[in-house]
Each structure stands twice: as structure tokens, then as C-alpha cells.
Amino acid sequence: MKFLALLAVALPLPGADSLPVPRFTDPARRSRFEAAFPEIEKAFEKFRKERGIPGLVYGFVIDGELAAVKGLGVRDRGSNAPVTADTVFRIASMTKSFTVLATLKLRDEGKLSLDDPVSKWIPEFARVAHPTRDTAPIRVRQLLTHGTGLPEDNPWGDRQLAVSDATLARWLEQGLPFSTPPGTAYEYSNYGFALAGRIVSKASGVPYREYLEKQILAPLGMRASTLEVSAVAAALRATGYRKSGDTYVEVPPLAHGAFGAMGGLLTSARDLARYVAFQLSAYPPGDEEERGPVRRSSLREMQRLWRPSGLAVDRPSPGDPLKAVASGYGYGLGVSQDCRFRHIVGHGGGLPGFGSYMMWLPEYGVGMFAMANLTYAGPRPPIDQAFDILSKTGALQARELPAAPALLATREAIVRLWRHWTEREAADLAADNLFQDSPAEARRQEIEKIKIDVGECRAGDLRPENWLRGAFRMPCARGFVDVAFTLAPTAPPKVQYLRFAAGKPPGRAMKAAAEAVASGSLAESNLRARVATFHKIYGACRVGETLGGNGSTEARLRFDCDRGPADVRLRMGAGEKLREVVFTRPPQVSCVP
User: 446: closest CA among 428, 426, 427, 462?
Assistant: First the structure.
């Protein structure tokens, strides 16, 4: 294989109105989702029965709409009234993200700053002794990300919903213990969100409940949602239960109080679907009119990772796929990445009598939620299983980014230069770093050598990575040339990086070797153990796309395997004997199986 590294393209500066946004391209997108719904319903019903949950409701949000909602079991064991889409459940800590919305709305209106010291809004907090002398002032931002150093307080915090403002003020005056130095670690704190609710009241000038219901819930059309149990009609409210052996015990609901901002909200499936749809509407960034009640950019801000909480890697059994999760916290929302998805946003909720969970995938425009009326019966497992089911059906396809005009013009300029090099074309294409490391003539000669090797070429489709970076393949008479380029931050943007990589399809001997590796039927005894280990992990494989190589002594290929794709590099030695096999993870794949 031959490489040409040109570091560099001169083009018109793209205006904001010419920048494309990612979009879904599968015309069967909705029908693929719907085909998976029956299997997903079975997963939720199995979970409900295994956990002994009296009642549960779950829903799908797809492209801003409640695409499916299903109630299972009963909202009240005494009356056997069924759960419906209008049944109201307490969602506990899922309330935290609503408190963040209220905080960000006030921030966007200039009424507070996330960098304000907490003591600016809660004077009693100024008397709280810090655990170390070098502790910086604790700020609003740290409340929203669980970074205050206050101790993890489940399940203590769950019983404090009805605490009065006066009691909270007295507690602050008595002091607070810290479990970690502020700002140094993630430590889940319900107390911190109670303080955030108090700041919302101080900054807005009205009680937290009034501000949330009028400024957040009402604009979102969440008319069935409230912080006060007494505001929900008995015919709609789910009764909370805990289990004592095989006996169900009704859990009396707590009234709204100073800790309501951390977990007091009650809502229905229809309302929660509106909320998940609102959060998903922040993606992709675009030019649409803001519909509020909080800016889309602020929604994206709360859905990004601000405080890491951990990395977990697991393989439940030797035959199971690898599971890796990097997790953390945004503002009132959990943010994670796993082997399946690059960006997962969600949060659970658990109180005596209830368990709930919501999760959405911004890149895929889909979200799910579920609410149950049994203590801490968080329904995340069937939601995770539902996303696995959707993945297997092919329904989950991320948005695709169309090529920006600057990238398309750059491709045409590169192809022109490839076909007929002129100093003027090269100069117009290049950023000022292009020819500093290697003279233009040397680069021209390298292009000519590749052209002699692969023959006549034509331009292929552009694969954009973002607005200023892309790649395309030029199919040629005797192989192909892969072209990758990046535009510089100049006006107009010119090419700062450009690489040509020539490749040829595998010849007869190389193709036979690749098939032997894919099937596990190698003749070379020194490579059998490596290949056998690979197949234990990946399963059966088939030879796929040619990624590079000269076709005779070296080849880079994509293998399509039962448990995922793999990139394979083969090297041939004397006598057309396979000398080396190297397996690597494809760049776009997060984890090996």
C-alpha cells in the first residue's frame, strides 16, 4: 500500500444557512420500530411478574411523538383498577431534571448564574463549615452535578419530601457533614437538590412548586403533573406498595415540602412522553424557532457529561458479549456511553411505593420510560432489553450527516488536482502548512506513482464526518484510492490534511488465505491458536469489504462476524504462505464482543 500525506483546500466560507444537519434516511424507520413492539411488551410483562409489581406503564417516544404506550397490571389492588396512559405515578428522583430546567430557565433569563456561590441564595449555607481549609465556595453548578461533597443520602432523603422550609433552614444552621472534599468526586445528594429547589424559589421570587408548575409544566402541556398528591384525583392516582414477604403493604404518600425538588413530582405516561420528546427536540442543533420553555442549547447542556462517576467492564459469562459502560452525570440527568450507543441520557427514580426510569438516545431520536407502583422497582432492565431488541431488528439507525457544500467543493478540487496537477490548483487547494514539510514537486511525484499503480480512477461518494472533515473512495481500474481530508480553521477554509491511500483487492492466494482465516480452517499451524481465539470471541465470520493492501503480500479486510465486525490484516510470506494475522477493532465500534 502507498500513502501520500498532504497536509492541507481553499473554498468559500460556508454560511450558517448552508450547513446541513443530520437526518434519518431509512423510509421504513417507523415500521421497523413497530415490528419490535410485541416482543418488547413481553419483556415488560415478564419483568412485572417476576418482580411482583402490581402495576406498570411504559411508553416509546419516536421523533417527538408518543408512538406506543401500554399499561400492565393494576394501579390499585383494592379496586383492581387497571393502569392506563392517564394513571399518575410518583417519579421520585426523575424530578431532579425538572428542577434543573427551572434553574436553567432562570439562568438564561439572567436571574442567576450556575457559578453563583450557594450562599448567595441561601445565607444559612455560608455558616456551613467546609471540610478543608482550601475548599472553594460551593456553587450552584455543583448542586446540579452531585459535586458538593455532601454524602450519598439514599434512602434517608426519600423520607424527607414533606420537610418544611423552616426545618431545612434549621438543619443548615446546625451544620452539614461532608463525605468527600467538594468538587473532587461524584456523590449522589438528594440534599443538594433540595437546596437547588430553594435557590429556584429565591431567584424567582415565588415558591418552587408555583414556579415549576407555571413556568415548566404548563408550557410543556403536562397538565396531569404536580408536586402535591392531593391535587391528583383518586381515580387517576396509582397507589404505592411495598412487599413484606408475599404481602403487599400500601405506602402512605408524603406531601410536598422542602425536599420536593429532589423527588416529589407526580406525572402520567402521556405527560412524561411530552417531557422526553422535549428533551429529544434539542437534537440535532438547528435553526428551528425556539418553542421553550427552555432553550434547546440549555437542554443539550444538561445532557452532556459534567461529572464522571465510573467505568464498568463486565462479561457475565464466557459466552456473553463484553459489556462496558462509562457513566457520569450531567445536570440532573445521568449520561453514559456503552458498547451499543455513544450517547445515552436517562435517570431513575425510587421512593417508598414507586420505581421509575426514563432513557433516550439523542442520536437516534428515540426514548423510553416506565413507571411502577412498587418500592424501588426501577424498570431499567426491560428498557435496556427493549433497546437491544430494537438494535437486532435494525430499527435503531443514527441520523446521517449530509455533506456540507465546502466538503463537496473540496472533493471536486481534490479530484481535479489528482487528474491534472497544476501549481495554481495546488496553491488554491492548500492551507499554508501544506508544502512546508515536503515540496510540492515531491507530492506531485507521489501522486503520479499511485496513478501508474492503480490506473484510471473516478470520484466516489463523500462520507462526511463533520462539516469540515470527510473522506471518499476513488474506484480505479486496478484497485482503489481512499482519500481523507480535513479543512483548516481559515476563511475561506483550505485543506490542512489530505491523505491518499491506494489499495487493491486480494489476489487468488490472498483471497484463499482470507477465506481460511474467516472459516477457521488455516493450514499454518503457528497461526491456528490466534485464529481459534478470535473465533471464540467473534463467532462465525465472512470476508467483507477490502480496506487496503496491495492484494498480493498484504491485505486489510473487514470481517462480518456473528458477534460484530472486525478488521483483519494479513501478510503473506515466501511460497504464498500466510505469515501474519492481526485482528483489530473497527474505528466506529466501541467494544470488542
Answer: 426
| φ/ψ bin of 288: left (φ > 0), alpha (ψ from -120 to 50), beta (otherwise) | beta
Q: How many residues does the chain have?
A: 593
Rounded-to-integer distance, Cα 373 and Cα 352, Å:
9
Backbone φ, ψ for residue 347 (5° rounding): -165, 145
Q: Is 155 helix (H, G, I), strand (E, B) or coil?
A: coil
204 close to 211: Cβ distance less than 8 angstroms? yes
Domains of the chain: residue spans and CATH: 3-20+401-502 (no CATH), 29-286+303-393 (3.40.710.10), 508-584 (3.10.450.280)
Q: How confident is the model at residue 437 (pLDDT cuts 50, 70, 90)?
A: confident
CA 149 to chain centre: 26
The three cell numbers locating residue 105: 430557565
Q: Judge whether residue 4 has pLDDT over 80.
A: no
Do the Cβ atoms of 506 and 555 come closer than 8 Å?
Answer: yes
Phi, psi (degrees; rounded to nearest 5) at 341: -135, 140
pLDDT higher than 50, residue 6: no
CA 457/CA 480 separation, integer angstroms:
7
pLDDT tens profile 75-98: 999 999 999 999 999 999 999 999
- Find residue 58's DSSP bridge partners: 70, 370
Q: For the whole model, what pTM was predicted?
A: 0.94
* CA dist., res. 237 & res. 109, Å (int): 35
